[in-house]
Every structure is written in structure tokens, then in C-alpha cells.
Amino acid sequence: MHRSARAASRVPASSKAAVARPYRFSRPFITLIKGLAIMASIATTHALAQDSAAAPADGVYDLLIGTYTGPKSEGLYVYRFDTKTGDATRVSVAKTVNPSYLVVSRDRHYVYAVNELPGDNGPASQRGGISAFRFDAASGQLTFLNRVSSEGNDPCYLSFSPDGRYLLTANYSVAADPGGSFAVFPIQPDGQVGTSVLTVHHEGGGPVKGRQDNAHVHSTVFSPDGKYLFVQDLGADKIYAYRYTPDGSRGLLSPTETRYIPMKGGSGPRHLVFDNDGRYAYLTSELAATVTVLRHEDGKLTPVQTLPLAAPGFKGKQGAAAIHLSPDGRFLYASNRGDANEIVIFAVDAANGHLKVVGRQSSLGQTPREFTIDPTGHWLIVGNQNSDTAYVFRRDPQTGLLASDPKRIDVGSPVDFKLVSPS
């Protein structure tokens, strides 16, 4: 699925490029505050008491793969992944439509997936969904629980609030109405996802016709201290900043004093990741195919460095996508699609967060979107959406480089990857 094609075909070029208000809340905060007393009573033991599971003694993890469904994919796949050998063996599949992004509860009992609709050929008025599954990590089996509307179209990202009470989704939205948004959903005691308690629509656009004719929310990322939410809007070239106040003192979410961080016009901010101590954040900008280092201080992000993903002299099409740090924080990885189709490897300067390119590795296929690095730091798994393959690259923790002889997984339109300890 190509959002660039969808945007070009469905969003009129005459869409308004800017409006006075950068975003609007779909429900008054007073209503939300009244509801907080009820929401606070939601039993969230499985979320609040979550701890990272210990590494399995045999080194074998569950590998969940989200896909775009079609002739070669039925939905959400579970594999056994051996961190000692890099081998992956298919265990099960849960049938669901376009589960292109996943999150797993920290107690490993539940998995949540977007249902990215309408997709390439559906009506722009069709809303996407979020599906909840009970997960038996020991057996690798998923059981469908429920599905709710994502309150927008083309949901493409999921994240938990710091306290585990809420699940947030980014609705990319190919249509000018309702436009890009993010929505907030309560997690029920039985793991089901409740209907949205808050939907925030962004407004405006950018200079790239067909890609920035309206807002396109691409990710929702909380700061490590849990106080702030940053929302990356590819269409508006902005990172919106919100305070998270579940006590209701400011509503559940409220804009910070700075409201948003403007990025370079036409750059298209996409995904954001923080280092472990929250001093620095790293941003991929899809349209410009760059990585930006941002210094973080009390809810404020300040750009300090921007680097291109492409090698010097590269002239083909590009599209920055996913971004992840190695478990030890010493290296940063970003995927670049288009004609590049590679993983770019950066060394991180611990003193100032700055980046230096130290390597590149072809993804050995077309359209590498998401990828993951296993908890041991010895493997990087990337999916080639348009080649129906995923590759498992051996990673050198000392140099950050990837070996050129990966193991192959054949799976239809792979997009997202999550590793879970089964024990």
C-alpha cells in the first residue's frame, strides 16, 4: 500500500493549505474531565503492573508480524524466533484486515493492531479500526477480542499511555474530511479496547502537492518521563506537543505553551524515538528522507542536527520510514524506501546526541518500512512490503554493522515486527 498514491488520487489539490487553528479537539475538555472519575476506575492491573519479561533461557522469542492482507497474507502472524541461530518458524496466524502496526501489552497478555482502512481501493469515507487480541505467549496463539473504529481513516501507529490506561492511534487519513487525527481509547479490564474518549484533528498542510494537501498524523510518542505526548504530522510539517494529565487538572491532554515544533517545509515528519534518558529524540522525515536530532527539555524539542539518509550523489526516489535505537543506545537505524531500499546505520555521540553515518545495508527487497532489533542486540529483522519477504540480519553490537548474508522469511506484505518473551 502506498500512501503517496492514495493521497494523490483522493485528496484534491485545491485543499486549503493552512487555517488559523492548527488543531481542534472533537470533544470539550469539560466532558472529558467529568468522565475521568469513571475512567480512573478502569481496572488496569495488566497494564500498570507490567514489567519487561526476563530473557527466555533458550533464547527463543515470539515474533509477531503485521502485514497488509491480500493474496499472500491473511493477517497477523506469529513465529518462533531463535536468537541463538536467527531462525524463524511459523506458529499461527490471526485473520484480520491490514494489521500494519502492532503493540503488545507489557504483561504480554494482549496484542493490539490497527486495521488500516480504507486502503488503496476503498472509499475515502471508510473508517479504519483497532483490533484487540488475547495472546498466549507460551503457545503463540492469538484470540480475537473486539474491534472498534479508529475514528479516522488509515490508522498507522499505536502507542500506550505511560500508565497503561489508554491506547492511542495515529489516523493518517487520505481524505480532507475528517483529515489527519489521533484518537485515545481506554483499555478495559478484560483487555478489550473501548470506544474513543478523545479525538484530536489537526488542520493545515504543506507545500508538497498530493502528499501535504491536508494533515497526515503519522505517530504518537510519549516522552520517557510520561509527561508529554508528541504527535508527528507529515502533512502539516509539525510536531505537536501535549501535556498528559490523567488527573484531569488540564483535561486528559492539553497543548503545551509552545503548541508545536515547526519542521522544514515539505519535509514530512513521520516517526520519533527517544533515547533512554529522554535528553534527545530522533525523527525521520519521510518526504525529505532525513533524520533530525532534537534536544528535549521539559516538553520542548529543539532541532540540533539534520542528516540525509541517502548516500552522496544518490538521485533516485526516497521515503524515510522507521527509526530505532540499538538496545545499548550506541547506534541508530533508519529505513529508506523508494529506490534506496536500505537500512542506514548511525553512531550516536553520547555527549551531544549527534549522529554519524557508519554504514548502509540493502534490505534486499522493495519498500522496507518497519524493522526491529532483538533484545540481545544481535539481530535486526526488516520487512520488504512490496517483495513479500523479511530478512534477519546478524548485527555486530560493537560496530553496529549488519552482515550481508541474512536469513529469509517469506511472508506476504510484511510491515511491522514485535518480539515477545514466551516465558
UniProtKB/TrEMBL annotation:
<dbReference type="Pfam" id="PF10282">
    <property type="entry name" value="Lactonase"/>
</dbReference>
<dbReference type="GO" id="GO:0016787">
    <property type="term" value="F:hydrolase activity"/>
</dbReference>
<dbReference type="InterPro" id="IPR050282">
    <property type="entry name" value="Cycloisomerase_2"/>
</dbReference>
<dbReference type="InterPro" id="IPR011048">
    <property type="entry name" value="Haem_d1_sf"/>
</dbReference>
<dbReference type="InterPro" id="IPR015943">
    <property type="entry name" value="WD40/YVTN_repeat-like_dom_sf"/>
</dbReference>
<keyword id="KW-0378">Hydrolase</keyword>
<dbReference type="InterPro" id="IPR019405">
    <property type="entry name" value="Lactonase_7-beta_prop"/>
</dbReference>
<keyword id="KW-0313">Glucose metabolism</keyword>
<feature type="signal peptide">
    <location>
        <begin position="1"/>
        <end position="49"/>
    </location>
</feature>
<protein>
    <submittedName>
        <fullName>Lactonase family protein</fullName>
        <ecNumber>3.1.1.-</ecNumber>
    </submittedName>
</protein>
<comment type="similarity">
    <text>Belongs to the cycloisomerase 2 family.</text>
</comment>
<keyword id="KW-0732">Signal</keyword>
<keyword id="KW-0119">Carbohydrate metabolism</keyword>
